[in-house]
Write a structure and sequence with these properties.
- The protein is α/β, with parallel strands linked by helices.
- It contains 20 helices and 10 strands.
- It has 2 domains: about 350 residues, TIM Barrel (Alpha-Beta Barrel), CATH 3.20.20.140; about 90 residues, uronate isomerase, domain 2, chain A, CATH 1.10.2020.
- The strands form 3 sheets. The chain has a 5-stranded parallel beta sheet with strand order 4-5-6-9-10.
- The protein is globular.
Length: about 475
C-alpha cells in the first residue's frame, strides 16, 4: 500500500515534483510569526509523552475535538494525557478534508518516522512508538527546531516582557535566532478599559515614571520599542478585530486618554480617535527603527461567552468577522504614507472574502524608494491556512500584485510540532507553478522557476526581514 505522506504528497504533476525536490525541499525555514514560548526553548524542555507536545497548545485540535462531542476534560481539562491522546486519535478519521488530517499525519511522519493512518484502533501503537522517542534528549525543544532546519523564528510578545529568555538564548549561542515581536494590542484597545488601565499601570512601573497623559504614554512605549530593538526585535504586530479611523488632533486623543484614566466612559467615536493616533504612533516607530508592521484583521473574538467563561481565551472559540474595513485601512495607511513614514507592512485578512481587497490595496502603497514588495499581502491566516485558502491567497496576489516578491509562509502556532506546515505550503506552491507550466500558462523556464520557488519559500523573507 502506498504511503499517505509519500515523497510526492500534494505534487500532482511532473513539474511540481521537480521543483519541490530540486529547490524547495531543503531550504531553511524563516518562521517570522508564531506563538512559541521562548522560555520553553531556552529551558530546552522535553515532553513526557506525545500528547503534551501535540495537544498541549494546539487550539486547532481542541476545536476539532469539541466538534466530535469530546468532553472538555479530555481537551483542556483534567483528563489524563493518555485519554486525551486516544480521544484525539478517535477524532482524526472524522477530519477528512480538514487540513488537520494532513498536518497531523505529516507531523507524525516528519518528527517520529511513523507512517500510519491514525485512528482509534492504532492509537496505543502510535502512543508507544512516539513516546519511545519524544522523552529522549534528541527530542528536546531546541532539537525539534533543529530537525526542521529552522534558521530563525519570531515569537509574539507583550511590549512589557523583559525578554530574559530571548536574551538567554542569544547568550547561550543557540544557532537558531529566536527573536521577539512587539505585539501592541494591549496599547491599542482602549475600549477594553479594565485591561487597558492595568496594562498602562504596568508600563508605568516598568519605565519608572507616571503615565498621566498621552505624551508620557508615547514616551514610555518608545522606551519599550528601543528595549525590544536592542534584543533583536525587527517586527511588530497588531490584531484589529475592526479597523477604526477617526480624524483628530493629538490633543483630542489626549483628552480621551485622560477620561479613561479618570474612570469615565468613552464613546465609540472617542475610542476611534485614540486608536487612530496610536496606530500612527506605532507605525512611525516601526518606520524609524526599520521594522516590519504586521496587521492581522478580522477576528470575531470569543463569540461564545459561556464557553469563554468556562475555558478562557485562546482556546479555539474565535471565528471570522465580516466587517468592512477597506476605506478606514486605506486612511490609516495614507496617514503614514503622506508623511513618508509608512514602514514595511504586511496585511493579513481572516475573511477570505477580503483577499482581493488586500491584494489590491497593497498596490496603492508600494514605493520606489523602498525595497521591492514593501507592502505585502500576508499568507493565508488561521482559518485560511489550508490548501484552498493558500491557493486563493496566492492567486489573488498573483492576479493583482507580484507573486515573485511574496515573503511566504509562517506557522502562527504555539506548537513545536507545527513546522511541517512550511513543507505543506511549499508543496502547494510548487504544485501551483507546475500546473501553470503544464497548462501552458507559464514557460517551462528552469531558471525562472527555480528563482521563483526559492524566493517565495525562503529568499524573499531573508531579504525583507533582515533577521
Amino acid at each position: 500500500m502506498k504511503s499517505f505522506i509519500c515523497d510526492d504528497f500534494q505534487l500532482n504533476n511532473e513539474t511540481a515534483k521537480r521543483l519541490y525536490h530540486s529547490y524547495a525541499k531543503t531550504l531553511p525555514i524563516i518562521d517570522y510569526h508564531n506563538h512559541l514560548s521562548a522560555q520553553e526553548i531556552f529551558e530546552d524542555i522535553t515532553f513526557d509523552n506525545i500528547a503534551q507536545a501535540w495537544l498541549g497548545h494546539d487550539h486547532y485540535k481542541w476545536r476539532a475535538m469539541r466538534s466530535n462531542a469530546i468532553d472538555e476534560s479530555f481537551i483542556t481539562g483534567s483528563g489524563s494525557d493518555r485519554d486525551k491522546f486516544e480521544h484525539w486519535c478517535a477524532t482524526v478519521p472524522q477530519l477528512i478534508g480538514n487540513p488537520l488530517y494532513q498536518w497531523t499525519h505529516l507531523e507524525l511522519r516528519r518528527y517520529f518516522g511513523i507512517d500510519a493512518i491514525i485512528n482509534a484502533n492504532n492509537s496505543a501503537q502510535i502512543w508507544e512508538e512516539a513516546n519511545a522517542k519524544i522523552s529522549q534528549a534528541d527530542y528536546s525543544a531546541r532539537n525539534m527546531i533543529r530537525m526542521m532546519n529552522v534558521e530563525s523564528l519570531c515569537t509574539t510578545d507583550d511590549p512589557l516582557d523583559d525578554l530574559r529568555y530571548h536574551k538567554g538564548l542569544a547568550d547561550a549561542g543557540f544557532e537558531v535566532k529566536v527573536l521577539p515581536t512587539f505585539r501592541a494590542d494591549a496599547l491599542y484597545n482602549i475600549d477594553r478599559a479594565e485591561a487597558f488601565l492595568k496594562w498602562v499601570g504596568r508600563l508605568s512601573e516598568v519605565v519608572e515614571f507616571a503615565i498621566d497623559d498621552i505624551h508620557a504614554l508615547f514616551e514610555g512605549v518608545s522606551a519599550r520599542f528601543d528595549y525590544f530593538h536592542q534584543a533583536g526585535c525587527r517586527l511588530s504586530d497588531m490584531g484589529l478585530a475592526e479597523v477604526d479611523f477617526e480624524e483628530c488632533t493629538l490633543d483630542d486623543a489626549d483628552q480621551v486618554f485622560k477620561k479613561v484614566l479618570a474612570g469615565s466612559a468613552i464613546s465609540p467615536q472617542e475610542a476611534a480617535q485614540f486608536k487612530t493616533q496610536i496606530f500612527k504612533f506605532i507605525g512611525q516607530k516601526n518606520h524609524a527603527l526599520g521594522w516590519t508592521f504586521q496587521l492581522h484583521i478580522g477576528v470575531l473574538q470569543d463569540p461564545n461567552k459561556r464557553r469563554f467563561a468556562e475555558v478562557g481565551p485562546v482556546a479555539g472559540f474565535s471565528a471570522i468577522n465580516d466587517t468592512c474595513f477597506a476605506k478606514n485601512l486605506s486612511l490609516l495607511l495614507n496617514a503614514l504614507d503622506f508623511s513618508r513614514q509608512l514602514p514595511q507592512t504586511i496585511l493579513y485578512c481572516l475573511n477570505p472574502r477580503d483577499n482581493y481587497v488586500l491584494a489590491g490595496l497593497i498596490g496603492a502603497f508600494q514605493d520606489s524608494d523602498a525595497a521591492p514588495g514593501k507592502v505585502q499581502f500576508g499568507s493565508a491566516w488561521w482559518f485560511n491556512d489550508q490548501k484552498d485558502g493558500m491557493l486563493e491567497q496566492l492567486k489573488a496576489l498573483a492576479n493583482l500584485g507580484l507573486l515573485g516578491r511574496f515573503v511566504g509562509m509562517l506557522t502562527d502556532s504555539r506548537s513545536l510540532l507545527s513546522f511541517p506546515r512550511h513543507e505543506y505550503f511549499r508543496r502547494i506552491v510548487c504544485n501551483l507553478l507546475g500546473e501553470w507550466v503544464e497548462q501552458g500558462e507559464l514557460p517551462d523556464d528552469e531558471a525562472l522557476l527555480k528563482d521563483t520557488v526559492e524566493a517565495i519559500c525562503y529568499r524573499n523573507a531573508k531579504r525583507y526581514f533582515a533577521l
